[in-house]
C-alpha cells in the first residue's frame, strides 16, 4: 500500500504488518475500502483497539473485544450488536484493519 509517497507493508488482505506505520489519515482510505462511513463511534473503537494492542500485543478477537469495551465503556457499547452496527463485516477484523493492526488470530 502506498501512503503519502511511502510504501506501507500489508498482508494479502490489507492488514498492516507494522502497526507503527499507521497514521490517522489511513483510516479514511481503509474505511472507504471497507464501505464504512466513519463516525466518532467508529473512531472510539479504533483508538480503543489500538490501545489494547499496545498493552497486550495482540489484536483482540470478537469475544475479547466485547468484554474489554464493556469493562471500560459499559454494556451499551460493550456488546456485539452495537459493534456489528459499526463494523458490519466483523467488528474485531474490520476495526483491527482500520486501526492498522494485524488480523485477529481467530478471524476467518
The helix content, as a percent range, equals 40-55%
CATH superfamily: DsrC protein, C-terminal domain
What's the story with the biggest beta sheet? 2 strands, antiparallel
Strand content: under 5%
Strand order of the largest sheet: 1-2
- Total number of β-strand segments? 2
Class per helix and strand makeup: mainly alpha
Q: How far apart are the termini? A: 22 Å
CATH architectural arrangement:
Orthogonal Bundle
CATH fold topology: Arc Repressor Mutant, subunit A
Count the DSSP helices: 5
Taken from the alpha-carbon principal axes, the silhouette is globular
Organism: Candidatus Photodesmus katoptron Akat1
Function: Part of a sulfur-relay system.
Family: Belongs to the dsrC/tusE family.
Active site: 107
Structure commentary:
The chain contains five helices and two strands; from the N terminus they run E-E-H-H-H-H-H. The protein is mostly helical. The protein has a two-stranded antiparallel sheet. A hairpin with a 2-residue loop joins strand 1 and strand 2 (6-7). The longest helix has 17 residues, at 40-56. The radius of gyration is 13 Å and the shape is globular. The mean pLDDT is 94. Part of a sulfur-relay system.
Q: Which SSEs are present, and which pair or pack?
A:
Blueprint: E1 2-3, E2 6-7, H1 24-33, H2 40-56, H3 62-73, H4 80-86, H5 91-98
Pick out its properties:
mainly alpha; 5 helices; 2 strands; 50% helix
Structure at a glance:
This protein has 108 residues and is mostly helical. The protein contains five helices and two strands. The protein has a two-stranded antiparallel sheet.
Amino acid at each position: 500500500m502506498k501512503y503519502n509517497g511511502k510504501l506501507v507493508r500489508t498482508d494479502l488482505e490489507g492488514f498492516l504488518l507494522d502497526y507503527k506505520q499507521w497514521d490517522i489519515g489511513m483510516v479514511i482510505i481503509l474505511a472507504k475500502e471497507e464501505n464504512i462511513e466513519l463516525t466518532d463511534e467508529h473512531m472510539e473503537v479504533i483508538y480503543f483497539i489500538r490501545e489494547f494492542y499496545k498493552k497486550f500485543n495482540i489484536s483482540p478477537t470478537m469475544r475479547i473485544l466485547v468484554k474489554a469495551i464493556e469493562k471500560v465503556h459499559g454494556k451499551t457499547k460493550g456488546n456485539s450488536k452495537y459493534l456489528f452496527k459499526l463494523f458490519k463485516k466483523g467488528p474485531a477484523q474490520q476495526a483491527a484493519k482500520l486501526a492498522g493492526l494485524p488480523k485477529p488470530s481467530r478471524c476467518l
